[in-house]
TrEMBL record:
Keywords: Glycoprotein, Secreted, Signal. InterPro entries: Interferon-induced_GILT. Residues 1-25 are annotated as: Disordered. Pfam families: GILT. Transmembrane segments: none annotated. Belongs to the GILT family. It is found in: Secreted. GO terms for molecular function: oxidoreductase activity, acting on a sulfur group of donors, disulfide as acceptor. The lineage of its organism: Eukaryota, Fungi, Dikarya, Ascomycota, Pezizomycotina. Residues 14-23 have a biased composition (Pro residues). This is GILT-domain-containing protein. GO terms for cellular component: extracellular region.
C-alpha cells in the first residue's frame, strides 16, 4: 500500500504582514499632533504641580507682617529682662510674621545736634553699636541675638572684648560693625541714633523697655516689673496676639 508522505511545516522564516503606512503628509500631521499633545500634557502637569506646591500664605506674607517694635536703652537691666523673658522667646516662634524694629530712648540736645542717654555716653555708644549691628546685619534673628548678648553684660558696654565676643558668637564681622560706627567720623552712626531717639520721643515712649505691637503699646518692663500688659506678659501671650493679627491681616479666619 502506498503511504502518503506527510506535509511538514515550512521552516522558512515567516515575515509578519506590515502595518499599512499612511501617506507621508498624513504622517507629518500626525507627528505634529502627537508632539503638541505631549507638550500640552507636560504643561498641564507642571501647572498642577505649581498649584499643589504653592504656599497658600505666599500672596499674603508681605502685607500680613505685623509691626513689632521694641524701645530700649542698651545699659538698662529692664531692657535685658524684657528681651530675655519676652521678646526673644516670642521671636523664635513668629519672626517670619513680624516686621521687627529696635528703637532707642534718649534725649536730643538741639544746641549741638547730639543725644543724651540716661546712663551716660557709654550707653549712647552702646545704642550706636546695636543700631550699626542692625544696619549691617538686618536679619532680626542675627542682630537681636547680638543685642541680647550685650545686654546680659550691660555694665561692660562698650568694652571691646565684650563686643568682639558677642559678634563672634553670632557669626558677625566686628570690623564691619566698627566701620559703621566710625563712618564719616561718626556722623553716620550718630545720625541713626538721633533718628531713633526722635522716633521714640514722637511716639511718647520714655520707658525701657516698651513693646509696641501693631503700632500700639503692648507691654512695658520698668523698675523690674511688667505694666500695661493687659493681654499677658508671657511669650505665649505675645505669640498668640501676633498670630491673631497675622491671620486677620492675611484674610484668614480662625
Amino acid at each position: 500500500m502506498d503511504a502518503k508522505t506527510p506535509l511538514l511545516p515550512s521552516t522558512a522564516p515567516q515575515t509578519p504582514p506590515e502595518d499599512p503606512m499612511p501617506p507621508r503628509g498624513v504622517r507629518s500631521r500626525l507627528a505634529r499632533f502627537h508632539a503638541a499633545a505631549f507638550a500640552a500634557i507636560i504643561g498641564l502637569f507642571f501647572l498642577a504641580q505649581s498649584f499643589q506646591c504653592q504656599d497658600p500664605s505666599h500672596n499674603h506674607q508681605e502685607a500680613a507682617k505685623v509691626p513689632l517694635e521694641v524701645h530700649i536703652m542698651s545699659k538698662c537691666p529692664d531692657a535685658r529682662d524684657c528681651l530675655q523673658k519676652l521678646v526673644l522667646p516670642s521671636m523664635q516662634n513668629v519672626s517670619d510674621k513680624v516686621d521687627f524694629k529696635l528703637s532707642f530712648i534718649g534725649r536730643v540736645t538741639h544746641d549741638d545736634d547730639g543725644v543724651q542717654c540716661k546712663h551716660g555716653q557709654t550707653e549712647c555708644l552702646g545704642n550706636i553699636i546695636e543700631l550699626c549691628a542692625a544696619s549691617v546685619y538686618p536679619d532680626p534673628k542675627i542682630y537681636l541675638g547680638f543685642t541680647m548678648c550685650l545686654s546680659r553684660s550691660y555694665e561692660d558696654i562698650p568694652q571691646k572684648s565684650l563686643l568682639e565676643d558677642c559678634a563672634l558668637e553670632h557669626g558677625m564681622d566686628f570690623d564691619k560693625i566698627n566701620h559703621c560706627v566710625s563712618q564719616d567720623d561718626g556722623a553716620f552712626a550718630m545720625g541713626m541714633l538721633r533718628e531713633s531717639v526722635e522716633r521714640s520721643a514722637e511716639l511718647n515712649v520714655t520707658k525701657s523697655c516698651t513693646i509696641r505691637l501693631n503700632n500700639e503699646v503692648r507691654c512695658i518692663r520698668d523698675d523690674g516689673a511688667w505694666s500695661e500688659c493687659d493681654d499677658g506678659s508671657k511669650p505665649e501671650d505675645l505669640i498668640h496676639d501676633i498670630n491673631k493679627l497675622y491671620k486677620e491681616a492675611s484674610g484668614w479666619s480662625e
